[in-house]
Amino acid sequence: MKKKAKHTQPKFFLLTLGCPKNVVDSDGMSDLLLDANYRPTDDPAAADVLLVNTCGFLQAAKDESIGMLQELAANKRRGQLLIAAGCMAQRFGEQISREVDGLDGVIGTRAWADIVPFIRKLRDSRRTRRAPLYHLPETGDTPVDTIALPRTMSLNQTSAYLKISDGCSAPCAFCTIPSFKGPNRSRPRELILQEAQRLVENGVQEIIIIAQDTTAYGRDRGEQDGLPSLLTDIIGAAPDLRWLRLMYAYPGHASDRLLDVMAAHPQILPYIDMPLQHGHPDTLRRMNRPHNVEKVLRWIERFRAQMPGAVFRTTFIVGYPGETETEFQGLLDFISAAQFDRVGAFTFSPEPGTPAFNLPDQIDDETKSERWERLMALQQPISLARNQSLVGQTLDVLVEGVGDGVSITRSYRDAPEVDGYVIIEQELSPGEIVPALVTGAMEYDLLAVPANRPLMVK
Asked: Is the pLDDT of residue 240 over 80?
């Protein structure tokens, strides 16, 4: 008598590259695969499906995406499926197929919610198929209304990203995102509130609001300033939430009402991430960005006045086409005037299909690098001074990891994966928010001890 074959659950390996928006999409795919009886694995060799959520924003990100797909393809065993998903798949699907031998499927960022039926289609066609299958819808109609509530959280079990919209309608001349993400599409408010409730019920202490432009929330539905009321509603729907952090604000859409709401609710951290991209109006005009620099400085001044200890994070591009030495010096002067708490800087990367790609007066790589170094050399003492001002103060910190007698934590001043840490000389309980006494400062990180432990004098 023959034994019945054992039916084991298929496994999937999912690698996420790129920004937090990709992390959220990966979490959504994970949930859909779990619902379809798949199990996650960290071992590619053990997986039935190999899935890479790619990034296509800059050339370095594209190179990384291709490299990881090629590495998985080289070690792919018989019966495994290799799928490229996400932004680069949407934008450069045919290029990926040419460069990755052994690729089975390409599914775009606008179609990730179809991952389960797409895998079924790949399996059904495996014997007759001689080329990868594509699922790259052109309409931009990502089904944001039906995205499942999250069970998977790739960040950690105490912090989670909450994406409030997808796509972007900003006209930035250097950016490719609207071409493959489509225009801004806000998620329904009730779905966002349900998701926030679910996250807090699952033990999340910190929710991080993300989108391509968080301050554009509701504009596609006729709301000109929908974000402030959304933040208020999230606090009302999830009153036990400890921290609510705001990322990816757009200077042209940030309002005084937003400041009022942030100041009124202690759960909303006095922290904002607003990528400004440059500090000289002429450069900003060529970027098709808001270029009233004085207005931005006044907004930052109000932000800090309404919320003592408020933290402003931004990013800049150096070496944009036509950037003269005078314009670059204007950027440095802007940084000196604003005294930003956190700054990220990138050298301009010309992206095909964008208006900036064909602009005259492209800047050579040597000049770009030299300007980047000058900008960072200016910002580092500013960051250090702002950190040093905290020595002797007590900050609440979220414990993320422990080991070797040390805890790695973050304060309200530190967004995950982009800012610094508060390093505590004691092992605490991961996931807790505890008070810490700051004892030392570096350019990006702080040193501290638990506030309830006496400071030992050596």
From this structure: yes
